[in-house]
Amino acid sequence: MKLATYKDASRDGQLVVVSRDLSSAHYATGIANTLRQVLDDWRFMAPQLRDLSDLLNSGKARHAFPFEPGRCMAPLPRACQWVAGQSFISHVERLHKATDAKLPKSRYTEPLMRQGGGDGFIGPCDNIVIASDASGIDFEAQVAVITGDVAMGASPEEALDGIRLLMLANDVSLRKLMADEQANGLGYLQGKPMTAFSPVAVTPDEVGDAWRQGRLNLTLQTTWNGRKVGLCDAGAGMTFHFGQLVSHMCKTRPASAGSIVGSGPVSSTDWSQGYACIAEKRAVESVDNGRASTRFMKFGDTLRIEAKGKNGQSVFGAIEQEITPAG
Amino acid sequence: MKLATYKDASRDGQLVVVSRDLSSAHYATGIANTLRQVLDDWRFMAPQLRDLSDLLNSGKARHAFPFEPGRCMAPLPRACQWVAGQSFISHVERLHKATDAKLPKSRYTEPLMRQGGGDGFIGPCDNIVIASDASGIDFEAQVAVITGDVAMGASPEEALDGIRLLMLANDVSLRKLMADEQANGLGYLQGKPMTAFSPVAVTPDEVGDAWRQGRLNLTLQTTWNGRKVGLCDAGAGMTFHFGQLVSHMCKTRPASAGSIVGSGPVSSTDWSQGYACIAEKRAVESVDNGRASTRFMKFGDTLRIEAKGKNGQSVFGAIEQEITPAG
């Protein structure tokens, strides 16, 4: 099934079930008001939502209405845990090559992951509000999952069983602030403004065999100012799959239902597929030409992130955003 | 007023109002079931809770019952943002001195802060469950605040106005895992198991003039295995006050109601006041004697953290925990 959250002026929004082709939707009222409630009590509520989803997909839901992505918040508008990994090794390798820093061997055996702030995600069509466009504004097209409860010490296979929903994300970055923060060793705070997620979150079965071994084997399309800059396979180059990421996160404590885990910027070993974040493009340029020539994003720039299924239909709907100045 | 959350097998627990002397409590049912609801709608709900608090303090509440800290979850059992600072410069200086690393000048002008996972806080009397006691288990006695909504770009003074509640925290650390994680630059994930908070969260007016200029001017008592190891002033040595910490956190994005900000380990410039985390004690030992002799915590070790008001009464109740093995 596919789930979205409509804006209703509340903090957690209003849960809707969305049809497979993203054409129609139905309020989940009577089952649950918010996705948080569903995640908190998945085994009880998910089957009821699935029945509603079946009805909607068969065209028999009586109060269906046209689905409008512009009315969406993030599927889970706030989360008590938001952890992003760097699970595509070609991304890590390219960035290291540009700085001449030696890549530790552990990068190939253990994922890098960091905690983020989950208190204010933005919707797929919301503007990205930034104080200054001299801060090195970058997009990061990612795949993300929402987990159920996962026990401390869960193996990668056990952790895979805990994955409830898949989404796309734009984990916006302020590269010039991130450099200093990374040097401090404590991760990113000011360098990461608000993250956006795709209009709908989908259960893994919705993508069929495109979801296998903890990876989403679909092409992630990234379009910057109307130009397709990335058509990257989101599965093939994923060094650490989502089960490994969640297991890593749960090594010393459990994860509660509603934790979101991001893949980090999608990246392909085949550079002809393009890029899912500007930093990687700039790193390749500085290795090839001695300097980075692609600029970061500016006010008025637009970004679109989408993934289509084998039938050519959008799976998650599109993230479509514009960079705008604060105040 | 003083607020606590009783365990009731739900994820967010049951909100109770607690009397000033911590002797009695009253369910907040009819006003709000959970502290999250109150924080989401503070201006509407806080005055109603305050009326109930007045009634309770005057001994006139009709359904009051004895308050039992052992029944408490963390006041806010899960939070969408949990950021810890390092706001006591004497702590930072002592740790740097032990490693011979040069302290950047910016440490004196800008706080260090990091994102943590807010999905599973533990109660003040809950065991600290750890996989291995060879991981360098340490306590960190801290002061923490819960914020309301704070705008992006808020000044330290504006940010101060957004502080709703004060608490104590034990931000447990696994020092041996943290060292590697800090070297990666992305902050702590496995190095930080579950954080515990004091039985009650209190509005700043409850501590009178002990809360001034964004600092809690009370003595933080830290007792390890029955021995008082720290009697540190939690205000005097706080280089960056809570308004500065929250303002720093909100530089590039707003904070939503229910964000928790920790002070980092309390530390006194006067070393005779003792310590609020073992790492600092070990750093001093290695400078003074060439090696750290105090061991980290082991299974069965106990910890108690408390702060008393001028009248000698416990303000927040005590955090009283034991380290226990997983499984």
Automatic annotation (TrEMBL), chains A, B:
User: So where does this one cross the membrane?
Assistant: none
Describe the location of the Fumarylacetoacetase N-terminal domain by residue ranges: 1-78
A GO term, aspect molecular function: hydrolase activity
Question: Where does the record place the Fumarylacetoacetase-like C-terminal domain?
Answer: 82-320
Keyword annotations for this protein, in alphabetical order, are: Hydrolase
> What superkingdom heads the lineage?
Bacteria
| Tagged with keyword Ribonucleoprotein | no
Report the protein name in the record.
Fumarylacetoacetate (FAA) hydrolase
